[in-house]
Specification:
Chain lengths: 202, 202, 202
């Protein structure tokens, strides 16, 4: 499935940009920006691979991942204003990225014979821990803990994918259904401020 | 040794509650609380397993660990006040938890043929790094660096267990002796403020 | 190559001292200082080994690494003033340490058959992530993001080593050339404040 491979590279690119923009925000230098972009883009998948024992971790075996991350640096430098103005499209790109990372992490874990629920969890780890590491290195409380139903949207998307695969194994529509779930949940949660309303712990 | 298995699940449950309570303290939402509970409960063992190469890490192969963590969420929600009032018993539960995690981490490392002193260290890592990760994600300097002889108590408990196993291999009393060591050292250190008194670096 | 082994132990010792001094700065207690020294000294190599799948990680199989770290504690205690006065020599020791860690990490990764550029990256990870973890645990934005061309110097040193090995495989001069590169770049960057001048992102 080559189109998935290109979508994966695209997701890596989007995550790298989000890491570099965080670095600009923190007034880091060029190298700091590159490191933060790298960590944000591959951090989640690296943690997943170390946990499930798929080492050397994935991006080490295919240099294209490193290349798109390095390519994100001049893009941020020359088109920074355009990217920041793209806010709405950006939200869409980012959500496609996390939806895709969820599915890829899920599939990789299932292939090792681990339980489906653990596979969904590892999908979520792949999708959200790059951002968590970015925030920890920037000395912020991870965004995942502060705003939006980010992890929950991935979790739901993973469940939808599992269910769809059960009924239509290998159908391309499964990926679309799963990513649409992530997009819809995230969109509705931001619009309706769900994380504030449904919090019995507060 | 089934009773150890149940004690391990109990320790996981206690650690999950401590993570969820930290999340409540930081005003995180439900999902944030679940993630912080999860990370606190399995973080130390996960790091140990990745370091010694026992992957996929332990909790992925037995869903009961995930279940007791999820179960900790409604417990915190409905009985929060009771848990906070239980302060003294809580200190005991928590100390039994770290003592047990130390012994289990130690045994798992020894079984791989690594040196006994490395096994004790990995026991300490299993016991304390869940809390370290909880504190890092909450943007706090880890508690382990600020208060109480937490890590030292685990280290001493690990040494006592090693010595006891040398003389009485496999005796149940070894676990009791080790956990009692952790409890006594931690109790005395809090009561007598040892970490403040014995610090030639200050 | 035994002299490399001793240089590696020396680098570990230097990094342990830098971790312990950070702990003194943050007013941690003795055990906190030991933990921070340990993490700073072996953190980078541990992360590298977990990522490339060389587990159990290196320092677990050779107790000398643990010994030099423990030995750093009394050294910091008795000669703290002398160490702080040694600022210039310290800069040299530290730079030799990161240069050496870069080369060792690079060689270990190459030996697994991974791409040379990934090997250079893993060399940089070995050299700088101990410090990154030290800063994260001390609740600081990692130094690597704030000052000095630390990671870039390692990267350049790694490239020089690769090129030199290509022309003169196994020559001792390669290591000298590589470490000299790291020292010169770092020295020039601090003197000329390169990180401030060359930052198109600011």
């Amino acid at each position: 499935m080559t189109y998935i491979y290109y979508l994966d590279l695209f997701g890596t690119f989007v995550f790298a940009i989000s890491g570099i923009l965080a670095a600009v925000d923190k007034k880091l230098d060029l190298v700091g920006a590159l490191i933060l972009g790298f960590v944000t883009a591959v951090g989640g998948g690296t943690l997943r691979d170390m946990m499930i024992g798929e080492t050397p971790v994935g991006w080490m075996k295919d240099l294209n991942y490193g290349l798109v991350i390095v390519a994100a640096l001049p893009v941020c430098f020359f088109w920074k204003k355009i990217i920041l103005r793209l806010k709405k499209s950006w939200f869409l790109f980012d959500t496609i990225g996390i939806g895709l990372f969820t599915i890829l992490g899920l599939q990789k874990t299932l292939a090792l014979g681990l339980s489906p629920i653990i596979a969904v969890l590892m999908g979520v780890v792949s999708a959200v821990f790059g951002g968590v590491i970015r925030d920890v290195l920037s000395n912020e409380i991870p965004l995942i803990f502060r705003k939006e139903i980010y992890a929950s949207a991935c979790f739901a998307g993973g469940l939808v994918f599992l269910a769809a695969e059960y009924f239509f194994p290998g159908a391309m529509i499964n990926i679309l259904a799963s990513i649409s779930t992530v997009i819809i949940i995230r969109y509705l949660s931001v619009r309706n401020q769900w994380s504030i309303k449904f919090n019995p712990l507060s």
